[in-house]
Amino acid sequence: MRRSQRRRRTVSAYRDGERVVVLIPAQFSGAEEREWVDRMLARLDAREQRNRRTDTYLAERAQRLIDRHLSDQRAAQAPISVRWVNNQHGRWGSCTPADRTIRISSRIMDFPEWVLDYVLLHELSHLVVPFHNARFWSLVARYPKAERARGYLEGVSAAAGLGISED
Ligand SMILES: [Zn+2]
Predict the structure, then answer these.
(1) Pfam families in the record, alphabetically (predicted)?
(2) Residue 9 half-sphere exposure, CB side, CA atoms within 13 Å?
(3) What is the average pLDDT score of the chain?
(4) How far is the CA of 14 from the centre of ligand 1 (A)?
């Protein structure tokens, strides 16, 4: 806990190795300090919970999407490898149908789950159809929020000037 003379009202917290540093205004009372430390620790926990999207989490989401939307597609059934990657700058996700591997850009790690699910379903559909043809899009359209998710991704890409596209 650090008290700052310059701070008037704002409280913030961040992790510094094993410690959590909570910055509070110098004039806070002892009771306010305890209240804010508790509140900021809870907030930090919630933030970290959201960020705990591991490769295992991706694999579980992928299986759930296959069961829900691609259960009638034999090509989507066999085991796949799904993992996060940091080196994918121009695409949200990619799929290599030949070795059944899917890579998802870590840029979307904090995106809402329904957007992440859309990107996953898009790549999973490539296990069935490698190209963006009508049959492919009919598989993707099985995901109820497909259009909304595409709009979301286009918006993020445009706002950040990223020029990232689906693949
Ligand atoms: Zn694609």
Answers:
(1) YgjP-like
(2) 0
(3) 88
(4) 38
